[in-house]
Amino acid sequence: MAKGKKKTAVKRDPEKEGIFKELCLKLKQAGLEVRRERLKAGHGWRVVSGVCRSDGNRLVFVDSRLELDEQILFLRSKLDEQLSAAEVRGV
Question: Which residue from 28, 31, 35, 88 lies 20 to 30 Å from 43 (Cα-Cα)?
């Protein structure tokens, strides 16, 4: 029998999950693709949620290990940044 880590299902609040998805949609409309992934960590370092570009696409990576409230706060901050940038550009 192979030994391995057991995966436990994370119960997510449907209301908060709806908020998360709504924020993802708004960011997509602003030109950002949101991806929820388990970001890698190593000895002495850890990748955090953030924005990057890949092949001309603007991506937002959200660490799936964060609490859903933290994921929502992160996406709200990115949406606020997008709205502020649009105001500065006069869009």
Answer: 35
